[in-house]
Amino acid sequence: MSEPAKLPATLEPPRDAHAPGSLPSSRVETLRVGDFRNYSVLDLAFESGFVVFHGNNGAGKTNLLEALSLLSPGRGIRRATYGEMARQGGSGGFLVRAGIVSNETATLVESRLPPPGGAPASRHLRIDKTVARTADELLEVCRVLWLTPAMDGLFTGPAGDRRRFLDRMVLAVDPAHGRRASDYERAMRSRNRLLSEDRMDDVWLSGLEAQMAELGVAMAIARRELTRMLTAKIAEAASASPFPAARLELSSGYELADFSTAAVETEEEVRLALRRSRGIDRAAGRTREGAHRADLAVYFAAKNMPAALASTGEQKALLIGLVLAHAQLVAQLSGFRPILLLDEVAAHLDPGRRAALFDLVALLGVQAFMTGTDAALFEALAGRADMISVASTSER
Amino acid sequence: MAKSVAGPEIEKLIQLLAKLPGLGPRSARRAALHLVKRREQLLTPLTAAMAEARDKIGICSTCGNIDSRDPCTICTDHARDQATVVVVEDVSDLWALERAKALNAAYHVLGGVLSPLEGVGPEDLTIRQLIDRIEAGGVKELVIAVNATVEGQTTAHYIMDRLEGLDVKVTRLAHGVPVGGELDYLDEGTLAAAMRSRTAL
Ligand SMILES: Nc1ncnc2c1ncn2[C@@H]1O[C@H](COP(=O)(O)OP(=O)(O)OP(=O)(O)O)[C@@H](O)[C@H]1O
Ligand SMILES: [Mg+2]
Ligand SMILES: [Zn+2]
What we know:
The complex is a heterodimer of chains A (about 400) and B (about 200).
Chain A: E1 26-36, E2 39-45, E3 50-54, H1 61-69, H2 82-85, E4 94-102, E5 105-113, E6 124-127, E7 130-131, E8 144-147, H3 159-173, H4 177-196, H5 202-238, E9 246-251, H6 263-276, H7 278-284, E10 295-300, E11 305-306, H8 312-334, E12 339-342, H9 351-364, E13 367-372, E14 385-389
Parallel strand pairs in A: 3-13, 3-14, 8-12, 12-13
Antiparallel strand pairs in A: 1-2, 1-4, 4-5, 5-6, 6-7, 9-10, 10-11
Helix pairs in contact in A: 4-5, 5-6, 5-8
Chain B: H1 8-17, H2 25-37, H3 39-56, E1 58-59, E2 66-67, E3 81-88, H4 91-100, E4 105-109, H5 127-135, E5 141-144, H6 150-163, E6 169-172, H7 188-196, E7 199-200
Parallel strand pairs in B: 3-4, 3-5, 5-6
Antiparallel strand pairs in B: 1-2, 6-7
The structure holds adenosine-5'-triphosphate (ATP), magnesium ion and zinc ion.
The site of zinc ion (ZN) has 8 residues of chain B, from loops.
């Protein structure tokens, strides 16, 4: 059920870099939102590799990025509930429909929240009018990556946020990772429940522990692979990049397991450790060790200092560098040039770095959606970007 | 629910219809109206069919299938290989396999999967009956065809452990089953392929 990630061991040179002026091979061409956040209905068309949403605070720029982030599995850039995305005072449901062109194939992706009434608040997804069984099917259409102000505290905040960030990075190159992570979580919660109910059914617990071991080890290996390849990408880019290089240090969440041995042996070791820790885990009311305890430590490489100690601006620059290196990795490994959602990134950069960011994005050949309160921030993109002015209904 | 405009009888019908899988309050209302409008063509025959189903259809005491006979049509079909038993979660999975004409075998319906989160334990499933059935003799091969979910796999593990020492060959439905795909929803070609390539454990 959970093959460890099979990723190439070496990094090949990027495929055909895009000739300047040509369109990214994977891009959003149209977007319709209905009853979504502050929009009752809005139709947009995009014609460039750069799309800029500019307008006042509260105009609805981030809301548009959120709509685009629904082209990826999960609940989008804000991790909000679908009910929160439905327009207040609207029908209670919403529609987000995007026309995508990816590697010369046009696809229509539609997320719809039906108006409330008995059914659970989950979105209905159609890809080219066909109902998608799982949101993972989106990964066959495109890849969407983002950087938002909410991620500013990533290095100083809770490990859970970094773990989610890490898993999203893995998912973009290894689509099986999402299912692996949610199954792991479910197996763990099931085991915790049996332990807390004092149901020490050895065979049942063993069945769950076998899956936790299989899934957890596969997760650890996939995360390790991603970290290794990302490290290589960062090193490759280091000399040319205006953004500081990050050094990554992954802790797997397992104390015992040494992931250099064959996966089957590691699985066995993890399985036995889980079996031994039933008593301790029952007393603790949680599973003390495992893939759910992983963390990604990030260092400011040049200063060999934890990123958490770097200045606010330095942290932001580190994060941008990381996201761009990841975007490059995704383009190389997944066969899709990722679509980037960069919320309020430009405002934090000095003009030199800002221009460098634009050039890097152009070089990557990806489509980037960016926001800012002031159109002037994007002057360096003159003639290369769709400049879309966003104004809330009350302003119009 | 809005105040009734048509009396408590129709409200009760709507409420019951809304409990059917796939029907929400809105579609239940439509269905009820449809039934009432087509009294002779639909409501009367449906009422009779439901009464008959209630009176005659039961659960096969051997395999857990639903039929008007006990043992069921499948269990008494001598053209079938009764020595091969396919273990499925639910009757709907049995039906899916039958539609796919994947195997000419007998079945065992577990009646669910082990799920601590939903409070389903071994005693809620027909695992005991499965073991009794094997101990009674005649079953040579067991094909475990549960879904590729955490609960399904845990249940498979549990059953395999309980079968230890019994004289039966156990195979498992190969993972030709797509991720997230539940047996009931698989297209018939995929199912037939998965059944053919089942792996011995
Ligand atoms: N469910 C909803 N229904 C209606 N309006 C909403 C809903 N959720 C959020 N809003 C409104 O959407 C508006 C725009 O939000 P958004 O975050 O997109 O602004 P923005 O343009 O990114 O602003 P800023 O420059 O401050 O980041 C907010 O004023 C908020 O009140
Ligand atoms: Mg915003
Ligand atoms: Zn039967």
